[in-house]
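--- STAGE predict ---
source: upstream dedup step, 1 unique chain passed
mode: sequence only
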Amino acid sequence: MKVFKVLGSGCANCVNTAKLIEQIAQEQGVSVRVEKVTDMETIMDYGVMSTPGVVLDGKVVHAGGVPQPEAVLRWLQA
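--- STAGE serialize ---
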């Protein structure tokens, strides 16, 4: 199971990012857990200055804006 964390205030882009990851994972048959992190101190600890940020298995893989579906697919296949 891949563990994603979506870092952000809970804005529309953050919600859409989490939904996109869940949707593509379901389409690909990949088991994921998506956690939403809204605590600003935790977000800053990851070094993310622009949200939404995406953390996969403890590593920041994206920051700023909703990721492209192709990027999500790459993360799921890695």
